[in-house]
Design a protein that fits this description.
589 residues, alpha/beta, Alpha-D-Glucose-1,6-Bisphosphate, Chain A, domain 3, TATA-Binding Protein, 3 domains, six-stranded mixed β-sheet
Length: 589
């Protein structure tokens, strides 16, 4: 991205310290009616200059004169669980699409502020995907025109910052930052024909160090001395940044600070199209990492692989993680359960007080929480539900911190920040290995299963299905709720169908229709299939089917093979092919 900025500036770099008069400034940075789009490129130039400037560079701009531009509402701007995601062309072919969205965010911020409130400071960052540079410029114009709402934009050098780092930054009191606008579509691919999105967590431009607060948060949580010693003894971690925002953070912390060698890193330079890869850390899209760790696309041993003690990947914006060892893939649900069980090996911040998982995740962590006497919560998919639990004490309730949480879609985190954090999960597993250096990842997982039993688990993703058909399938399943069932003979007996609803114990808010749960008995053992529609796609509907079967005695099977029959039965009951026309999933993990 830095090369693009340099090329754009060209000869204008010589005018970096030449600013317009106060009259010109007022014309560019203010508005009278909303929404407003300044007509000059001065804001864009200032933004590009600051992306290249030293960390101390900042700018103050007065505002009096105002201009407005009429617009109409868009009916397709309802955000999903992680912001608004659309195909890139939606954003590039109609500039007003972005302008309206940002103006809406600012209007909401303004409506929640008292008349005497001072303007806010906002962090503006991206995961580096295609269209980030012009979008940062475009958003800076709208924010600058709303100087009664926004006083300062904080922009990381080159505009790239991982989502966990953004969360850490805005939660640090010393930054006086009220919210964040993050340009990301997370694990979705990037490029002109791919996806783009805007996530809201929550003028003048200030260049900020994206590492400082984040590194401090991790140093407070983990024993960096232990991890440095582990690295110095020749132990190796294979870290795949997938050409996303997490790459530079992985190299900074794992490499520069902890001392893991250069050959431990792959694809850690952010690229607009993520190097042509789909930046979703799973067995399908993390193929090269998985193969180098001695696994195939189904998570089975290949008998090959390189000499790394731990393999890990982050997604496009650095908040998701894949964990594996040589010849073993750790499902997100098992990873969460292992971290809960070995919490004392990871953190010196006190005993674990609360754990939570998303409903589609396996119940592996539930068993650990019960044995340890830790409060356990099952929430809908969406990190905001975990955030409420972390904030319980601040809202006058019980404290659940230190708090651990995770979701089935490769997201893991804790109360160190209020966001899922891919690198945090990597450091958690590195800490487990550093505490018991004689153990491999496979040893750790096998010991866990012997202690608690194994939850075989798999997820089937059917991407870009027709929305009408997907919704009809869910209505079909909802129609089975309350029926007396003993459907299917032999090995697979359907006992119950229910729609998952959640009452937040902190806010008392009720969230209904969060997925359909089909409970089975499989050869006498409990099992289930879960169907839900994902809110993280950019087009159509993504149907996700989650399969889970508990076994307290046999741990040596491959999850996809062990669950194949259950999946076939669930697909038949849901009539998935009939409603969606899809015979095969896009991805199985």
């Amino acid at each position: 991205m830095n090369n693009e900025l340099n090329e754009f500036l060209g000869s204008t770099l010589t005018t970096m310290l030449t600013f317009p008069t106060d009259v010109e400034r007022r014309r560019l940075f203010t508005c009278k009616k909303k929404p407003m789009i300044p007509t000059s490129s001065f804001t864009f130039l200032l933004l590009l200059i600051t992306l290249l400037a030293p960390p101390a560079f900042s700018l103050s701009v007065p505002s009096t004169s105002r201009y407005s531009r009429p617009t109409t509402a868009y009916l397709d701007q309802r955000p999903g669980t992680s912001g608004l995601r659309k195909k890139t062309k939606v954003w590039t072919e109609d500039a007003m699409f972005m302008n309206n969205l940002i103006q809406s965010y600012l209007n909401v911020l303004s409506s929640r502020s008292s008349p005497s409130s001072k303007p806010l400071s906002i962090l503006l960052a991206s995961d580096g995907r295609y269209h980030s540079v012009p979008s940062i410029a475009q958003i800076s114009k709208v924010c600058g025109a709303n100087s009664d709402i926004v006083s300062t934009l904080h922009v990381p050098r080159n505009g790239v910052q991982s989502t966990p780092s953004c969360s850490s930054y805005i939660r640090s009191p010393k930054n006086d930052c009220s919210a964040a606008i993050i340009l990301t579509a997370s694990h979705n691919p990037g490029g002109p024909e791919a996806d783009f999105g805007v996530k809201f967590n929550g003028c003048n431009v200030v260049i900020v160090d994206p590492y400082e607060e984040y590194v401090e948060a991790l140093e407070k949580f983990f024993d960096f001395k232990l991890l440095k010693d582990y690295a110095s003894k020749g132990n190796r971690i294979l870290f795949d940044g997938m050409h996303g925002a997490g790459g530079p953070f992985g190299k900074k912390i794992l490499g520069d600070i902890l001392g893991f060698k250069e050959d431990c890193f792959m694809r850690c330079d952010p690229r607009e199209d993520f190097g042509g890869c789909h930046p979703d850390p799973n067995l399908t899209y993390g193929k090269e990492l998985v193969e180098r760790m001695g696994l195939d696309g189904k998570g089975r041993k290949t008998g090959k692989g390189e000499n790394f003690q731990l393999g890990a990947a982050n997604d496009g914006d650095g908040d998701r993680n894949l964990i594996c060892g040589k010849g073993v893939f750790v499902t997100p649900s098992d990873s969460l359960a292992v971290i809960a069980d070995r919490w004392e090996d990871i953190s010196s911040n006190g005993a674990l007080k609360g754990v939570a998982r998303s409903m589609p995740s396996s119940a592996a962590v539930d068993i650990v929480a019960k044995k340890k006497g830790v409060r356990n919560f099952v929430t809908p998919t969406g990190w905001k539900f975990f955030g409420n639990l972390m904030d319980s004490e601040e809202l006058g309730g019980e404290s659940f911190n230190p708090f651990l949480c995770g979701e089935e879609s490769f997201g893991t985190g804790s109360s160190h920040i209020r966001e899922k954090d891919g690198l945090w999960a990597v450091l958690a597993w590195a800490s487990i290995l550093a505490k018991s250096p004689s153990l491999t990842v496979e040893d750790v997982v096998n010991q866990h299963w012997e202690k608690y039993g194994r939850h075989y688990y798999a997820r089937y993703d059917y991407e870009e299905c027709g929305s009408d058909g997907a919704n009809d399938m869910m209505e079909h399943l909802r129609g089975m709720v309350g029926e007396t069932l003993s459907e299917g003979g032999g090995d697979y007996v359907l006992k119950k169908v229910e729609s998952f609803s959640y009452t937040d114990p902190v806010t008392e808010e009720v969230t209904a229709n969060q997925g359909m749960i089909l409970s089975f008995l499989v050869k006498g053992s409990p099992a289930r299939a879960v169907f839900r529609l994902s809110g993280t796609g950019s087009a159509g509907a993504t149907v996700r089917m989650y399969l889970e079967k508990y076994d307290g005695e046999y741990f040596g099977g491959n999850s996809q093979e062990e669950l194949k029959g259950l999946g076939e039965k669930a697909i038949e009951i849901a009539n998935l092919e009939g409603f969606t026309g899809r015979k095969e999933p896009t991805v199985i993990t």
